[in-house]
Amino acid sequence: MAPTVLHLRSEDKPLEHRSALTPTTAKALIDAGYTVNVEKSPVRIFDDEEFSKIGATLVPTGSWRDAPKEHIIVGLKELPEETFPLKHVHVQFAHVYKNQGGWENVLARFPRGGGTLLDLEFLQDPETGRRVAAFGYSAGFSGSALALKSWAWQLTHPNEPLPGVESYPNEDALISDVKADLAAGKEKAGRLPRVIVIGALGRCGRGAIDMCLKAGVPKEQILKWDMAETAKGGPFKEITESDVFVNCIYLASKIPHFVNVESLKTPGRQLSVVCDVSADTTNPNNPIPIYTVATTFKKPTVPVEGLDGGPPCSVISIDHLPSLLPRESSEAFSGDLLPHLLKLNNWRNEPVWSNAEKLFQEKVASLPKEVLN
Ligand SMILES: NC(=O)c1ccc[n+]([C@@H]2O[C@H](COP(=O)([O-])OP(=O)(O)OC[C@H]3O[C@@H](n4cnc5c(N)ncnc54)[C@H](O)[C@@H]3O)[C@@H](O)[C@H]2O)c1
Fold it and tell me: Which residues bind NAD(+) (predicted)?
């Protein structure tokens, strides 16, 4: 039987350096008998040569459009905005299942061309219902890094907002940078920050804690909370008594506020940085109603308004935190996905993939008739 061919797209968004396949996972697929074609990419964090060295075939940027119908197209984020019908099986995050703007026209391209979408956001372990691969760990790790940088910056540059940041070539570079900032902050404050992480048992929470530890925050200064600790209902003085709060919960329902503008007015407040990794910014149930806008790498913080007195408090609410560390976040994500990628040669009989196809068919069935022509 001819080997199954996976075709890795070059991402289309200029700042998207992450990749669904990495040289490590591509090599594992090739070793298992797959052919891996990799589009040359001007944006990917991995150089084209890193792929050719492990036996992948480099193909022109954008050549997925003309690839034979049976090749499986693998990518990370949305396809470029085009309208031609799609004939392939596509593995990617498409962001079209939650009524996002324009979802009908994008999704309709698949049934119009006889193609299939296997959306990475909805790949679940059939036994536990948990996602098989997600970017949470890297999000918490990066969010915590920016929160620590912001704490130090407030001390060394009072009244100036944290400047923009760009993605780091690797984790070590980020850790060194945060360590240097913390050393400068410690010189001013006479100590390192106290940090509280809520949602500490989840993917983002584990990443947030690991960053603090790798940056040198003593473990006794990291408060790790999850469901048990918040069950009593907030607002929590343990948050206002900490210097930095990293929120990593998965918000499933309305819960009491963890912190709000009133609780920030508590005399003696220490809290000066909040990183809302969960970034439920516009969700009416957001348990951190102290800010209203998503922030970006270019402008990472917003001040909390209406505090009248006390130290300033900055909020970071970036919704694409893993892009700060494209190399490691891609490795972690692709590594978690690998056991399932290895089953793509028989995907119709593998529950993780066949359930994703079932969901695709359900969503296609909900499309308005007029977009199918
Ligand atoms: N900002 C970003 O770039 C980014 C990237 C990835 C994920 N996220 C978001 O981060 C959130 C967490 O993702 P995850 O993959 O870590 O989820 P997860 O399910 O692995 O972990 C969530 C944790 O939150 C805990 N939790 C839930 N409600 C809580 C409460 N009321 N009090 C205390 N703990 C509570 C859970 O017990 C769990 O341990 C999600 O909303 C996700 O969309 C953001």
Answer: 130, 202-203, 226, 230, 250, 277, 318-321
Question: For residue 159, what pLDDT is reported?
Answer: 87
What is the mean predicted confidence (pLDDT) over 283-300?
93
Which protein residue's CA is at the shortest distance from atom 30 of ligand 1? Answer: 227
Q: Atom 12 of ligand 1 has which residue's CA nearest to it? A: 250
7 is catalytic: no
DSSP bridge partners of 302:
315
Q: Is the CB of 248 under 6 A from ligand 1?
A: yes
Per-residue pLDDT tens over the stretch 195-235: 999 999 999 999 999 999 999 999 999 999 999 999 999 99
63 lies in the same domain as 172: no
* Percent share of the chain, pLDDT over 70: 100
The predicted model scores a pTM of: 0.90
Contacts of 372 (CB under 8 A, 6+ apart): 108, 111, 112
Give the residue numbers spanning the domain of 127. 5-133+325-372
Residue 97 Cα, ligand 1 centroid: separation in angstroms?
Answer: 20
- CATH of residue 287's domain is 3.40.50.720
